[in-house]
Write a structure and sequence with these properties.
With 347 residues, the chain is an alpha/beta fold. The protein is built from nine helices and eleven strands. It has two domains: 206 residues, Rossmann fold (3-Layer(aba) Sandwich); 124 residues, DNA Methylase, subunit A, domain 2 (DNA Methylase, Chain A, domain 2, Alpha-Beta Complex). Helix 1 crosses helix 8 and helix 3 runs parallel beside helix 4. It is globular, with a radius of gyration of 21 Å. The C terminus is likely disordered.
């Protein structure tokens, strides 16, 4: 029952997982106006600061027991330019460290894409770890696949967890409990197969959804999209849910695509069902958001972006649960030491 600050919050998949594990998210920051309504309506007990994190003084961020969040990942992405720490967005990682240094919570968690472990970023990784150490934290990191933590999706992400040095603890990734069997698309979205609707013109939100957000983006498929198979079948987990609707995987009702040449695939003309992208709600299910978590948007591109950038809720929960177990005694003691006005907001 601990107060946590969330940075680079997005729509709050990481926040929801930590909440489910018993943490209380007291303050969050998100600069993207397309996300604000979704965050505020789904995290009603959290104060959302909407300013650019660079314009927020450390003194305006509440004292807390933990800091969580994933700084923007585009500069580290395997699909991006891999500018890494030299990119302005890469510098946000160091801004995260400066906040950590100023607030000194018991722990922190930072999440990023697998591309940051590319050999070209090896020095940047060393610098980041040194910065965490200089901020006063024993830090562990590992590349994890959310697939093994009750998420029906192949999704590899780098997770950093640090414990304040005076606690004399180290987060042990080997203690994370893997869940088996691997969840499938059928388990995640089978019941949605007959109720989906297409987006309206220009991929604006439809008014005809009987299931909230159960609409899919329309439009052509680029040569990049057609460079590999994009279909996983019902008895398989999904491909990674990405932050762009046009890159959403194809619904499993269709046959797998046919390889016809180097980096060239086609849709099977004999497929018994048509090829369509996964809907917004189907992507949310695969990211393990509950159905009562409603996404607010005018254009579907904003919906796919916020869902694709989120940390899968079940993945976040698995990590948060272990952090809570590691720090339970310290959490109780620290809450007692926090001034009364703040502690009332935390428990």
């Amino acid at each position: 029952m601990s107060g946590v600050v969330s940075l680079f919050s997005g729509c709050g998949g990481l926040d929801l997982g930590f909440s489910q594990a018993g943490f209380n998210i007291v303050w969050a920051n998100e600069f993207d106006k397309d996300i604000w309504e979704t965050y505020e309506k789904n995290h009603v007990n959290t104060f959302l600061d909407k300013r650019n994190i660079k314009n927020i003084s450390h003194k305006e961020i509440p004292d807390c027991l933990g800091i969580i969040g994933g700084p923007p990942c585009q500069s580290w992405s395997e699909a991006g330019n891999q500018a890494g720490i030299n990119d302005e967005r890469g510098q946000l990682f160091l801004d995260y460290v400066q906040i950590l240094k100023a607030k000194q919570p018991l722990f922190f968690l930072a999440e990023n894409v697998s591309g940051m472990l590319h050999k070209k970023h090896s020095q940047a990784i060393t610098n980041i770890l040194n910065a965490f150490n200089e901020a006063g934290y024993n830090t562990s990191y590992k590349l994890l696949n959310a697939l093994y933590y009750n998420v029906p999706q192949d999704r590899k992400r780098v997770i950093f967890v640090g414990y304040r040095c005076d606690l004399q603890k180290q987060f042990n990734f080997n203690s994370l409990v893997r869940t088996f069997p691997i969840p499938t698309l059928k388990q995640a979205i089978w019941d949605l197969k007959d109720s989906v609707v297409p987006a309206q013109n220009n991929n604006t939100s439809s008014k005809l959804c009987n299931v909230p957000n159960h609409e899919y983006i329309q439009g052509g498929f680029s040569s990049i999209y057609m460079s590999r198979n994009r279909v996983r079948l019902w008895d398989e987990p999904s491909f990674t849910i990405q932050a762009g609707g046009r890159h959403a995987p194809i619904h499993p009702q269709a046959n797998k695509m046919i390889h016809v040449g180097k980096d060239k695939w086609i849709f099977d003309p004999n497929s018994p069902y048509p090829y369509r992208r996964l809907s917004v709600r189907e992507c949310a299910r695969i990211q393990t958001f509950p159905d009562e978590f409603i996404f607010y948007y005018k254009n579907l591109s904003a919906a796919y972006k916020m869902i694709g950038n989120a940390v899968p809720v079940n993945f976040a929960y698995a990590i948060a649960k272990l952090i809570k177990a590691d720090l339970q005694p310290q959490c109780r003691q620290t809450i007692q030491e926090i001034p009364l006005q703040l502690s009332l907001n935390l428990i």
